[in-house]
Write a structure and sequence with these properties.
One of its GO terms (biological process) is pentose-phosphate shunt, non-oxidative branch. The protein has helices at residues 2-35, 49-64, 75-83, 121-130, 163-174, 211-219; strands at residues 40-44, 68-72, 87-88, 99-102, 106-107, 113-114, 134-139, 153-158, 177-180, 197-202, 224-227, 229-230, 234-240, 246-249. The longest helix has 34 residues, at 2-35. Helix content is 36%, strand content 24%. It is α/β, with parallel strands linked by helices and 250 residues long.
């Protein structure tokens, strides 16, 4: 009985992980199939979901002989593009993108997003802002009614010299608890692709219902480089569902 229960527990623990990975894959593949056509400039997001999108993109580029210029949103994205034999572009040469496809940590019913769980929010936001269309790809756990319903922190990228004053200022103005994100080995702070630190803003419940307003106020604090709040930027979201379908929202 003990062995049986262990096996059952093990399969329960492993089940959601497997289905979440396939949910990410079907969402990313659908977005690539729907939005990629020949001769476009395409923003490549960061995170685990976009990996499946880039694999599909590489397959389509090979099979259909497509000419796609890919603009990365991070060191990870740059190497995904190169490792998959795709054409690497840069904003200096291609300041206007046709589409950017990226993941999200949470996305609400109006397609406002929290991003930056992987620490790439600044370049992601710059690239998204240059794109005519920002498309979100995610598994169903990222789909929420309102921001911070499911994802309980907002990442903020800051200049290293200002992290303590920024932490103090935001906590006294808006409450919550800002924690300096540490690197994987916890030996020092996580340093972004841009040489900055990340403050993760944790709170009980939700800090506000006006995320646009709070975003503007935080952006005014000297030393804040950018926030993980992507308000009014995304045009469409693809969610991979547990039953194998893809939910499209716009
Ligand atoms: C990185 C991001 C990612 O896009 C976000 O964290 C989603 O990642 P994943 O696809 O692994 O769920 O914003 O900074």
């Amino acid at each position: 009985k003990y062995t049986f229960n262990l096996i059952r527990l093990f399969s329960q623990v492993n089940q959601p992980k497997m289905s979440l990975e396939s949910a990410k894959r079907i969402a990313a593949e659908r977005a690539i199939d729907n939005h990629v056509k020949d001769n476009i400039v395409l923003g490549i997001g960061s995170g685990s979901t976009i990996v499946y999108g880039v694999q599909r993109l590489a397959e389509r580029v090979r099979n259909e002989n497509l000419n796609i210029i890919c603009i990365p949103t991070s060191f990870q994205a740059k190497h995904l593009i190169l490792d998959n034999g795709l054409t690497l572009g840069e904003l200096d040469k291609n300041p206007v993108l046709d589409v950017a496809i990226d993941g999200a940590d949470e996305c609400d019913i109006e397609l406002n997003c929290i991003k930056g769980g992987g620490g790439c929010l600044l370049q992601e936001k710059i690239v998204a802002s240059c794109a005519k269309n920002l498309i979100i790809v995610a598994d169903h756990t990222k789909n929420s009614q309102y921001l911070t319903e499911r994802y309980k922190k907002i990442p903020i990228e800051v200049s290293p010299i200002a992290y303590v004053p920024i932490k103090t200022r935001i906590e006294s103005l808006f409450g919550g608890d800002l924690k300096l994100r540490m690197g994987v080995a916890k030996a020092g702070p996580c340093v972004t692709d841009n040489g900055n630190f990340i403050l993760d803003w944790f709170f009980e419940g939700s800090p506000t219902t006006d995320f646009d307003g709070i975003n503007r106020e935080i952006m005014m604090i000297p030393g804040v480089v950018d926030t993980g709040l992507f308000i009014g930027m995304a045009r469409k979201a693809y969610y991979g569902m547990a039953d194998g379908s893809v939910l499209e929202k716009e």
